[in-house]
Design brief:
The protein has helices at 15-25, 43-49, 67-76; strands at residues 2-5, 31-34, 56-59, 62-65. The chain has 77 residues and is of the alpha+beta class. The protein has a four-stranded mixed β-sheet with strand order 2-1-3-4, sandwiched between helices. Helix 1 (15-25) links the parallel strand 1 and strand 2. Helix 1 runs parallel beside helix 3. The chain starts with a strand and ends with a helix. The mean pLDDT is 96.
Length: 77
């Protein structure tokens, strides 16, 4: 799995951190990719989802964006 997230240095200030904490709590192995702060520079996110917001979770062929959807996806796995 790959988690695309913001550059916030802690897991307690943003929704990206909420997703990262849940992944770690469930023992899921994942790579983190910190995306540029400026949304205009998030070309990879735009290519994956058609929008420029993070977090985005990529699990094989599945691409899930929006922290609430990601948490629901993890709960259903």
């Amino acid at each position: 799995m790959i988690l695309y997230r913001c550059r916030t240095p802690t897991n307690w200030l943003c929704r990206c951190g909420t997703v990262a904490r849940r992944l770690r709590k469930e023992g899921v192995e994942f790579d983190e990719v910190r995306v540029p702060q400026r949304r205009k520079q998030r070309v990879e996110i735009l290519d994956l989802t058609g929008q420029d917001w993070v977090p985005v979770l990529v699990d094989g062929e599945e691409v899930i964006h929006d922290s609430h959807r990601i948490l629901e996806y993890l709960a259903s796995r």
